[in-house]
Amino acid sequence: MRVLALDHGTVRMGAALSDPSGTLATPLPVIEPPEPRAVAELVAEHGVERVVVGLPRHLSGEEGSQAALARSFCAELEVMLSVPVDTYDERLTTRMADASRRAGASAARDSIAAAHLLEDYLVTLESAEESNP
Predict the structure, then answer these.
(1) At what angle do helices 36-46 and 65-80 cross, to 10 degrees?
(2) Pairing mode, strands 13-18 and 50-55
(3) What would be the CATH architecture of the domain defined by 3-131?
(4) Structural domain boundaries of the chain?
(5) HSE (CB half, 13 Å, CA atoms) of 12?
(6) 128: helix, coil or strand?
(7) In a structure prediction context, what are the per-residue pLDDT tens digits for the chain, which is 133 residues long?
């Protein structure tokens, strides 16, 4: 299953795409400004079967104002797209992206964060499928 992950922000949005097997995550160019129409174009262009939007939470697990904005963006996508739209905890993905960039990754920070989000999401999907055959 091909999945598109989004690291939603108010100025720009990182994006990453899985391969058709749902194994690898590849950062895509940043979407500026973050508009649902641009996401719909990516979904159509790449045959995406699911979209996952990072849900920013505090380390305590509580949601703040950025989480409310991400949920609102998800609601806009759900109206526009014919594929499922999920949210997924994005805690620490920006820190992971910073470490990846220090290690030599050259993609935009926001898209690397989306790739880390997607990698974790795909592992969770795989685990769920294995426990519910």
Answers:
(1) 50
(2) unpaired
(3) 2-Layer Sandwich (3.30)
(4) 3-131
(5) 13
(6) helix
(7) 899 999 998 899 999 999 998 889 999 999 999 999 999 999 999 999 999 999 988 777 777 778 899 999 999 999 999 999 999 987 666 676 666 666 777 777 788 889 989 998 998 887 677 666 6
